[in-house]
Amino acid sequence: MTEFEPVVGLEVHAELHTQSKMFCGCAVVDSTSAGPNSAVCEVCTGMPGTLPVINQRAVEFALRVALALECHVAVTSVFARKNYFYPDLPKGYQISQYELPLASDGVLEFGPEAELRSARIRRVHLEEDTGKLIHGPGYSLIDYNRSGVPLLEIVSEPDLRSVPEVKAYATALRSLLRYLDVTSGDMEKGAIRFEANVSLRRRGSSTLGVRTEIKNLNSFRGMLRALEHEIERQGGILSAGGKVVQETLGWDEARGVTVSQRGKEEAHDYRYFPEPDLPPLVIAPAEIDRIRASLPELPLAKRARFAHDFGLTAYAAEVLTADRHVADYFESAVAAEPDVTPARIANWLTGDLFGLLNELGVDIAAARVPPASLAELVALVERGEINQSTGKILLAEMAQEGGSPRAIVRDRGLSQLTDQTAIEPLVERVLRDNPEQVDLYLQGKTTVSQWLFGQVMKAAGGKAHPPTVQQLLSARLQALEAERQKR
Asked: Which residues pair with 160 in a beta bridge?
């Protein structure tokens, strides 16, 4: 299928973590833990005679995203009724935006520094979420807690050309949304969902092929698997001389296939018309300026600053800035120990601490190792007060129990042996107790020295300063070799 090129546009729906819903005063609750239908009212369940009211906080969140994506913000936008009839949509229509969205014509840059790409953003608009269907054997239940929760829809142009590009784009967008603190980004709870528009065209052609839309992709893994399958499916049809049918597809995770749900709807199928119960949404230019001025440092700018100011590799800067909490943690750690090289702290953070937190299933924000403690631990290693092996053991304990590294070292007597007069007897004892290995070394098998080094470290309880041990051991072995040659 190398003769075909995939063309993908992504629609991303992000639940905004406001305290109340989009058009009513009901609380936004965790749909995975709250009792069913415990946060509902007449408005979000679509009772006759009720009137919606726009959530100001949701509008502010949407503006933050639109401005971060460099969109043109419409001074006046309009909410519309999008008519379709599903059990999880109690009104029989969804309040969304269509002809006059909140923002349009933006851009998102994504990918590693050396391969930075960009995708155009067609539109950013507000709407309300639907309810949640729970299916059982022979029955279906509906929980309306999610109905009416503010949703932000971000629609890209069909600028993505491969599955890895889609992954990089979606990852960068999720990171941006979390930096802006407008959504939790928790995909296990449905805070971000994807819909992908997929078509294939012959390489070198500028004509778009017939597209299909894959709905309700709730995880990165599911989205990427669905795209891989759909690209392969369409490629097989086109290679055999067939024609792809425009339709809406679902993703069957268990079977690993896309399944047809219905013919693809166009705008006229939804019978959009302006929401009669809501006035146009008018944004004052001063409000746009205020929100623009309040935007935080965004991931790409932070990545460039980390590389420049802290001397990090492009890869390390990318890893550290992918999540705002990790970036904040790193900066706090660096500030706590200015004499420690930032790259050393970065290595301990992204290597050892990340691995421990992953094993424990703990997020960086809930880590029992605060930034200053990690920096202090790295400083102890860098200054030779403890060796790296002891540092790793100590960090594992701190990740479990917390505590000050310096206090633990003091209370446990873990300080590293750096005094040559204390290490020399250990070297002599190891050489005396292992004459066979010493003879092998003197016969030319120099790799035995590493085994002898390990024995000295073991005799020192792992607390000896490795460079000092290496220096003393090497000097003593060379002396023995010189004595042997004199005989």
From this structure: 8
pLDDT at position 289, please? 97
Question: What whole-number distance in Å separates Cα of residue 43 and Cα of residue 487?
Answer: 100
Q: 147, 128 in Cβ contact below 8 A?
A: yes
Domains and CATH numbers, the chain: 4-292 (no CATH), 297-412 (no CATH), 420-486 (1.10.10.410)
Output the six-digit token pair for 261. 């749900």
Task: Please state whether 384 falls in left (phi above 0), alpha (psi between -120 and 50) or beta.
Answer: left
H/E run at residue 408: helix 405-412
**Tokens representing residue 360 in the block:** 């424990």
Rounded Cα distance, 487 and 485, in Å: 5
**What interhelical angle do 448-459 and 420-433 show, nearest 10?**
120
Tokens linked to 84: 């379709």
Length of the chain: 487
The pLDDT of residue 266 is above 70:
no
CB atoms near residue 279 (< 10 Å): 11
Cα 473 to Cα 416, 459, 463, 487: the distances in Å are 17, 13, 16, 22
Long-range contact set of residues 46-50: C-beta below 8 Å, sequence gap at least 24 = 46/90, 46/91, 46/92
Render 5-24 in DSSP notation, one character per residue: EEEEEEEEEEE---SB-SSS
The answer to whether the predicted template modeling score (pTM) of the entire model surpasses 0.85 is no
> Is residue 396 within a helix (H) or strand (E), and if so which, with residue range?
helix 388-401
For 22-52, the DSSP string reads SSSSPBP--TTTSPTT-S--TTTTT-TT---
Quick one: three-class SS letters along 99-153?
A: CCCCEEEEEEEECCHHHCEEEEEEEEEEEECCCEEEEECCEEEEEHHHCCCEEEE
> Closest Cα partner for 301 from 141, 116, 119?
116
Tell me the C-alpha distance between 391 and 401, whole Å: 15
Indicate the burial class of 163 (C-beta count within 10 angstroms; 0-12, 13-18, 19 or more).
Answer: middle
- What are the residues facing 194 on neighbouring strands? 12, 217
Confidence of residue 418 (pLDDT cuts 50, 70, 90): low
330, two tokens: 């790193």
CA distance 412 to 461: 12
Predicted pLDDT of residue 427:
78
DSSP state of 195: E
Of 92, 82, 134, which is closest to residue 270 (Cα–Cα)? 82
The rounded distance, in Å, linking the Cα atoms of 268 and 438 is 87
